[in-house]
TrEMBL record:
Pfam families: MFS_1
GO cellular component terms attached to this protein's record: membrane
Transmembrane segments: 47-67, 74-94, 100-121, 133-156, 162-183, 195-217, 223-240, 261-287, 299-321, 328-346, 352-378, 398-417, 423-451
MF GO annotations: transmembrane transporter activity
Organism: Methanobrevibacter millerae
Subcellular location: Membrane
PROSITE patterns xrefs: MFS
Major place of residence: membrane
Keyword DNA-binding: no
Keywords in alphabetical order: Membrane, Transmembrane, Transmembrane helix
Protein name, as recorded: Multidrug efflux MFS transporter
InterPro entries hit by this protein: MFS (IPR011701), MFS_dom (IPR020846), MFS_trans_sf (IPR036259)
Amino acid sequence: MKLTKETVTLIIFIIATTLLSTAQSVVTTGLAGIMSDFHVSSTTAQWVYSSFLLVLGVMIPTSAFISRRFKIKTIIVSCLGLFFIGSLLAYVAPNIGVLIFARVIQAIGSGILLPITQIVILKIIPVEKWQVFMGLFGFIIGIAPALAPTVGGVIIDSVGWRAIFLLFAIATFVLILISIVGVKFEFETSDYSLDFASLILCVIACVGIMLGFSNIAGNGFDLVYVILPIVIGFIALVIFSKRQFSIKYPLLDLRILKHKYFFFGTLFSAILYFTMCGLNVIMPLFVQNVAYHSATESGLVLLPATIIMIVFNFVGPILASRIGVRKVLIASCIFSIVGYLVMMTYDVNSSINYMILTQVLRAIGAGLGLMPAVTWTISVVSGNVEDATAINNTVRQIIGAIGSAIAVVLMAVFAGGNVDHNAISVTAFGETSLVMAILAVVMLVIVILFVHDNVEVEEI
């Protein structure tokens, strides 16, 4: 690849996004130290992590408007600037409230930059090379958050959790300087107006739905913490959706969902993400509460599968560009179905090695499917990558939060309310795995009926 102004811009965006994406999970290994320093409970400390995820989901829908309205140099410098301020504030935070606020500022920058980087890739790279470059992007931003807790743990054990944020601030400051000098390629912008009512409704919808479902695990179906936020969120979502069809400058052009292939492609990736997020919650629950292994062993069960999934995030798009996305997604579904069915064979005596090996099957399915599906879905409406990217990412973020909650609820319900070291909980885990397998079958049906290799691009 020649170092043109386009490729230099693309490289800077990918490096910046990689750095910002590590902030999502790097603090998880520092929560114990944060609890000790600020004398707070684990429930309070976890908001250092949860607040970041919540704001991340809220900011993604704004990416379509931002990419149309502002120059990309302004966008990257502003996002990095916010992340820099958040990192410095976190480094000097005198209490847990300031630290959480600092994480919110970090997440605003990260939540905008992630989908904007995808838009930059899709704008610069020719359509026929989208799969390969999106696969590379998926691999890079996948490996960084996966390794972040391990690297962060080493740093935290050596010099404390504050050092993480100081390193973020230094690296971000350097990237700001590089971006000011190196980003010379620009897209055409317009005087696209921001509809504040849509923005407010979108924030209420995203926060309500994600917060409500995220609270299920800790609060059950509590009226205040769960049901009320979800109801308010869905009401706001309905009003928001209707408004987008009636205003001149919608925050998200939802007419794109009328495109049959875009709709079902988004549905496929959403279901896949639902099962992935659900698995990430129920698997550690089974390993520790049912099979009675340690938390460290629980992490070891998922680590090889996570690495395999990240590798296939890159392999999947390459295969899709060579043999067609339809065949790759069918293979993805088959691996997923087999993986979840094999999980039904787990019992209280299942060894760590057996679980590691069998989790690889599911991980191959997830890795093969996600990036090829996302790229193909956006390609069928390639004339409107801004809205397509924002909608696809937002739907997956919300569905992921729902998936994590629903999986825990299902397993608890099947277990009679208490997941423990007994046969009933083993059966409950198997039944929850069967639900995941059924969802994978639904994905397979979607691929067979609605995913084709040569779909004509339509302007919506």
